[in-house]
Amino acid sequence: MLEMRPDCERCGTELPAEAPGAFICSFECTFCASCAEELDDLCPNCRGELMDRPTRAKALHEKHTPSTRPTFRSDR
């Protein structure tokens, strides 16, 4: 099951699990659409392809809770 990280690793934009607009690589590095475009859909961490992350219905959040641990680091 996807971790559904809550923010863009590059700029800190919030990326709710139920909303479209997040991009992930096979290691679940997570980026917003703007950053993914600037990165030419290539993960800067592993060089993997960035793909649209599927959404998770809000009704499933209680049973399958998305991550709340931020991934954005201002030193990047």
UniProtKB/TrEMBL annotation:
Residues annotated as region Disordered? 57-76
Instruction: State the superkingdom.
Output: Bacteria
A Pfam family annotated for this UniProt entry: DUF1272
Q: Identify the InterPro entries for this entry.
A: DUF1272
Polar residues biased stretches: 67-76
- The name under which this protein is listed is DUF1272 domain-containing protein
Source organism per UniProt:
Erythrobacter litoralis
